[in-house]
Amino acid sequence: MSASARGAPLFTIRPATAADIPALAYHRAAMFRDMGTLMPDQMEPLQRATEAYLAEAMRRGEYLAWLAEHAESPSGILGGAGVQLRPILPRPRPGSDGLERGPEAIVLNVYVDPVWRRRGIAKALMRTLLDAISERGIGRIVLHASDEGRGLYERLGFVATNEMRLASPG
């Protein structure tokens, strides 16, 4: 997929491969850093742990990702988005007599380099991701939105749910 203005491509979106794992791991760490939840000295350990996880998860088909690229970016990569496919227990399908059986798709690591934000890149990444999930017949898609991303996700049809988290003392 490519997005353009006046015929000139601004960026293209492609599926990520195992060779892209370092970039995907960097995006995850940078996302948490930009949200203020990761200290600078935690960047490298999170990147290494993420690389190890993604190597296995992508090999097993449990993690899918896409990257936005542009030749004028120093790395070529402007941002990315991923989805973890995870099994769920069967549950009632809201608004129907049917059951949801999984897998569930949890959207993760939606990140765009700060100098490339507000140009439609995250939206294009999310539309590509949502199309791919739909093609796989996965109907349950969840995510945790940052304050900055919440508006985009709402425009794409995501709604707030009743999820809660146990604040453990450790």
Structure description:
- With 170 residues, the chain is of the alpha+beta class.
- It contains four helices and eight strands.
- Strand 3 and strand 4 form a beta hairpin.
- 23% of the residues are buried.
What is this structure's SSE topology?
Layout: E1 2-5, E2 8-15, H1 21-34, H2 43-59, E3 63-69, E4 77-86, E5 91-92, E6 99-100, E7 104-112, H3 121-135, E8 141-143, H4 150-155
Parallel strand pairs: 7-8
Antiparallel strand pairs: 1-2, 2-3, 3-4, 4-7, 5-6
Q: Termini separation (Å)? A: 44 Å
Helix-strand pattern: EEHHEEEEEHEH
User: Which of globular, elongated, flat, extended, rod-shaped describes the shape?
Assistant: globular
Oligomer: single chain
Count up the helices: 4
| Share of helix, binned | 25-40%
Largest sheet: 6 strands, mixed
Rg from Cα: 17 Å
Share in β-strands: 25-35%
Model regions low in confidence, pLDDT < 50 over at least 5 residues: none
